[in-house]
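[job 4417] fold queue: 2 targets
>>> target A
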Amino acid sequence: VQLQESGPGLVKPSQTLSLTCTVSGGSITTNYYSWSWIRQPPGKGLERIGYITYSGSTYYSPSLNSRTSISTDTSKNQFTLQLSSVTPEDTAVYYCVGGLSFAYWGQGTQVTVSS
């Protein structure tokens, strides 16, 4: 299974960050699989933003819950992240991760929040 992130590398403050993860070699509806977004700000550790399960249930980090939405497009075998009202503190490398126990990782995409 391969995952590939896509989306803008630069977002202005107060706007919405939107990223898409395209999954190939497997189905996002595979039983018991979950699909996560994880980020790593510069000089900091990994932070899980949230995830969506194979059945469509979602979980968001409490610190980001009010600004986060994760959804799937089963026809395209994709899942997406929307993070609203971004600030420079949302600057990070964003990873899409999926499968059982974080088995599959995308290569990561740099997103910078700046005017």
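>>> target B
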Amino acid sequence: QVQLQESGPGLVKPSQMLSLTCTVSGDAITTSVYDWSWIRQPPGKGLEWMGAITLDGSTYYNPSLKSRTSISRDTSKNQFSLQLSSVTPEDTAVYYCARVYSGDWGQGTQVTVSS
């Protein structure tokens, strides 16, 4: 059974970069038939898909966030990461990593953007 666990700072200052890592167990990110996604949910709002990385390392992003978002991976650790640049308080959200098409999600991690 696949498990996903998000990790990273819970507080980021405005204009800085948000960096999160998802550690995957129970499946290999380099061979899985599924893509690996980052999704967020701002307080009081719906889920927003941010982007994903495929088994060969290709990435694709939500057009509304593409200019600020980068997803990468560390195959030796079976991890994939999110970087979101130039954050503002509007980027405050619970951030999830997920294997969306199989319905497997991490528990989520709260990130607050505040000075």
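[job 4417] complete. Note on B: The chain has a mean pLDDT of 96.
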